[in-house]
Amino acid sequence: MEESLERLKDIIEKTDNIVFFGGAGVSTESGIPDFRSVDGLYNQKYDYPPETILSHTFYRRMPEEFFRFYRDKMLCLDAQPNAAHRKLAQWEEEGKLKAIVTQNIDGLHQKAGSRNVLELHGSVLRNYCERCHKFYDAEYILNSQGVPQCSCGGSVKPDVVLYEEGLNNETITRAVEYISKADVLIIGGTSLAVYPAAGLIDYYRGNKLVLVNKTPTPRDREADLVVQGSIGEIFSRL
């Protein structure tokens, strides 16, 4: 571990063009459950599997059940940024980090001070009326009953990408641009199992691919450096 940390420190010190690609593991140390770990949402018992509830079809067919699960498990509004979020914000402030491409929907990168955050799967902090497009914050959803209603009578939908829905084209285009131009790509807290998001790293053309994750990923063999462990703990030591 110490040797890996020293190599990572050296890589970071020698560049000012880093892009970070992150997943749920970045936020687990802030108390937000991921989907695939032992304690994740996929291993808890509900009437329906989480991937079914969080699908476009389920949202349309059973919206009240969707929002019951959504309020209970997806709105972690008291969560605070951890060492990984803070370190990334620091690197951006120092001019080293050019962008964060995240699969997370919790807004913790922005809460830590990061500005250029590309949210592939949207954000729980943004909610819109499907009829008039009026904006509502996450507290409105949390404190509402049943299906949240707009003042115009329309339903309010979270601005998150559900299963069966496509990613935002503009966000994808920007993510590809940053990743393809990065000198260093750091991938952290993700199993790289969710597509199409995980496929974006195929656009990386640099020479320093770093993977930081608790468990092995399908891309470990391609990496110049693999650091296995908790990303918050590792980043706090940089």
UniProtKB/TrEMBL annotation:
The protein, known as: NAD-dependent protein deacetylase
Catalytic residues of the enzyme: H121 (proton acceptor)
Residue ranges annotated for the Deacetylase sirtuin-type domain, each copy included: 1-238
Top EC class, one word: transferase
Catalysis: reaction(s): N(6)-acetyl-L-lysyl-[protein] + NAD(+) + H2O = 2''-O-acetyl-ADP-D-ribose + nicotinamide + L-lysyl-[protein]
GO molecular function: histone deacetylase activity, NAD-dependent; hydrolase activity; NAD+ binding; zinc ion binding
Residues annotated to bind nicotinamide: F35, I105, D106
Recorded GO CC terms: cytoplasm
Cofactor(s) the protein needs: Zn(2+)
